[in-house]
């Protein structure tokens, strides 16, 4: 594809970008799964516009007015109306108000001691309140549901942060391609290499109308002529991907009133990069031919993961600031300095990223409520009020999560605290979490208070500057059942606890008679509600459902006693791995939960 290099004065070494023009053959289009190296790969990233501000606008039913979201004294989200006044994130509130006297200022919801639910209080204070992001989490899940419903079933979706998701559209796009261009399904009889024959050139098509297409060379005079026609089948694939994204983004607007922006490209990092090209309510296509010039002019810190410590280290080590300057550095010297894994950096600079789009488990395995304390806790008694605030948040979040997955239960409750007068600094205490149907503030606070007392050493001085309370090992009962099942299949000598026998003894744990059954283990009697229309079979089924529910209860109870080293108890091991190679340069974005 010679257009790739056309128009660039300072000829760059085309060999750097060879990967961008792979042959596309009948075999490529007919393969069901070519994975991350698929030459027709289509990845999108969709990011909600001014997300927290948008959530508040929808909640308050305010449209088209300048609004900012405040967290303590900081502006954390600025809607696009307010941006017209030159207001930016992190600007002092005073300045923002001067720029726009009619500005609507919403402080994020906070938990207040003694209140079971977060609210929008007047003058919240970090000394007495704790920020709640629950509204945004909830809305984030709703957006994700619309993506899932709106896109073809074979789209892989990965939630990447509170307001972003990646989409692997390769499979649905391929289906559409074959449907629209059925002649691609079979090589012509005279094809020289059979399935390995390259596809014929695509017909003259235009790009998806509502998308912005990044030009191949922004400085070329004949931009229209060169850029505005898909020239490869991958271009056509990107354009179809853009149709799908546009449609689902419109659904989000219609159903939830949120606007979003998307980027569509051959891989994740490029999709993310070009998603911010046209905001708000825009979507951008970055075709392969446009990648070299797009990347060359870029300060490399703009690339996902190269913005942080790794970017700084690269700039320092090689005394460079742009992608163009980094390109001549050989893979060997990069690996010498930053370890094996820096091949990832080397590839990214060449427009390559083999990272998969992978749906994360629907269940968040842990939940954490944390608070940095502006006024440190110096004695046991002062801790209880904060624990109650954290307990309220956890109780609410678990209860809410159970609305969609009723069988959800955590295995462990963990309290972390940072005592700056203690040489060991941060410590955690944990306890198995009992199976309780109603997780109230009182129940959570009760368990947490106990951990707090264990944490506090009455004889030692304390100055606690941060506490967090969390649930870990959250699972649906079905998963728990499977795990228990696997566990019990091990030879008994390997079993780590005895009680397991109780809940899976060979004899049936319940006896059934008529419309009710009595559990032999706990004596609980469950009775079906009377129904005149029930047949015998239906009665049996209803009864066995009740029985299963009750057995779940016992299994959950037992599982909560299974000793397991969970994530919270493994920090040392993890840290070691993290410190190797380039990994140590990655810091987790707290919003990427
Ligand atoms: P972003 O997607 O970075 O920003 P945004 O959605 O507000 O605006 P844009 O239209 O440019 O995408 O972050 C998503 C939300 O995360 C944001 O609305 C507020 C929150 N956030 C913080 O709380 N602190 C921060 O430093 C950033 C960057 C975001
Ligand atoms: Ca956003
Ligand atoms: Ca974002």
UniProtKB/TrEMBL annotation:
SUPFAM superfamilies: DNA/RNA polymerases (SSF56672), Lesion bypass DNA polymerase (Y-family), little finger domain (SSF100879). Keywords: DNA damage, DNA repair, Metal-binding, Nucleus, Transferase. It is found in: Nucleus. InterPro entries: DNA/RNA_pol_sf, DNA_pol_Y-fam_lit_finger_sf, DNA_pol_Y-fam_little_finger, DNA_polymerase_eta, Rev_trsase/Diguanyl_cyclase, UmuC. The keyword Ribosomal protein does not apply. The keyword Repressor does not apply. Residues 43-307 form the UmuC domain. It holds the Pfam family POLH-Rev1_HhH. Its main location: nucleus. Gene3D superfamilies: 3.30.70.270, 3.40.1170.60, 5' to 3' exonuclease, C-terminal subdomain, DNA polymerase, Y-family, little finger domain. It comes from the Eukaryota. This is DNA polymerase eta. It comes from Mycena chlorophos.
